[in-house]
Amino acid sequence: METVVLDQAMLSQIDGKLDQLRTMPKDEWVDRQEEDLLRQKWDLEQKLELMKTKGNTYHHELIALDQETFGDGDKRVFKEVQAFKKSLAKIQKKEMAWPSLEPLVTAQGNRVEIATYKKCGDCHKAQYEVWKESKHASAVVPLYIRNQHLNPECIVCHSVGFHEPGGFKDLGYLESFLDKTLGTKNKGSMVELRDYPELDRKLRRQYVKAIEKASWKKDFIGVQCENCHSPRGIKDALGKDLPHQVEKELPKKVVAQTCLKCHTPSQSPEFNFEKDRRILGEKDAKAPFHCKFKVGNTP
Questions:
Q1: Which is nearest to 130 in space by CA: 298, 299, 297, 294?
Q2: For 113, which of 59, 150, 180, 233 could close a Cys bridge (C-beta 3.0–4.6 Å)?
Q3: Mean pLDDT confidence for 254-272
Q4: Are 218 and 114 in contact (CB under 8 A)?
């Protein structure tokens, strides 16, 4: 009975997301999301129908190859899986087709680059203080735990501007930085951080401390201001920094499609744009999906 209730609740969530998608302008991305949701809905409906006629069903789940699952089993398999992930990341980096990193040029002749939080925080100090305590800021930590921090398919949603105009492509420094900051014993450990909140807070706090001490002019890792608000690093033709307000054509509002590129039904099944779009600290903010967890409160 409990399974039926859960499946019916998931159907309602899918219907809500479909309604949301159908209010957006039609494009290839919207069509793909709608197709994915419709497929999930059909599978659930078939499952519920089967339960009505036969009274039983089955389900499957992904099992993390972590120490808890392996116990005292053959650790060579675990190491080989981690080695495979690293090799796969190298292959993906070579084979994936990426667009140019050249900055976009506006009608006024200005270049638009990714500024990163390093620049945004100069003016938006209150927003920066909220952001750095959010899970968005330390979004690379769970990737490191899964040994997926060099996987291009993962980094694209755990950073800002990866292989985008005005963004970045080099991940060469990331491995050594994370090894030093988080400790190699945690790399590929496959621990589910939500089940170990103290470890989660500790690692995220260590990461934020490290990036604040780093002398980089830009840091693209982590989900940042420009993931939601679009690139804001404006330079004139001579390379002089300009306030982003000079460009009137930049997007003014955060739209659902921006969030749903990464908060897909498979990755974030409970994500609701209307409820989760505001970061804690904004006017009339509601509890955000990833930002309600405050790292800074850890003693």
A1: 294
A2: 233
A3: 82
A4: yes
| CB burial of residue 106 (10 Å; 0-12, 13-18, 19+) | middle
Q: Which of 115, 216, 130 is nearest to 160 (CA)?
A: 115
Q: Strand 111-113 relative to strand 104-105: parallel, antiparallel, unpaired? A: antiparallel
Alpha-carbon torsion 127, 129, 133, 138, what sign? Answer: positive
Which of 50-54, 105-109, 259-263 has the lowest average pLDDT? Answer: 50-54
Tokens of 78: 């675990």
pTM for the model: 0.67
Residue 58: predicted pLDDT: 58
For residue 196, the tally of other CB atoms under 10 A from its CB is 13
Give me the phi and psi of 291, to 5 degrees please: -100, -5
Q: Where are the alpha helices (DSSP H) in the chain?
A: 2-21, 28-54, 67-70, 75-95, 117-123, 125-131, 140-145, 152-155, 174-182, 197-213, 225-229, 256-260, 273-276
State phi, psi for 162 to the nearest 5 degrees: -70, 115
Amino acid sitting at position 54: K
The predicted pLDDT at position 27 comes to 82
Can you give the residue ranges of every domain in the chain? 2-54, 67-297
Q: Which of 137, 102, 133 is nearest to 221 (CA)?
A: 137
What CA–CA distances, in Å, run from 274 to 37, 163, 204, 205? 18, 29, 27, 29
Q: How confident is the model at residue 68 (pLDDT cuts 50, 70, 90)?
A: low
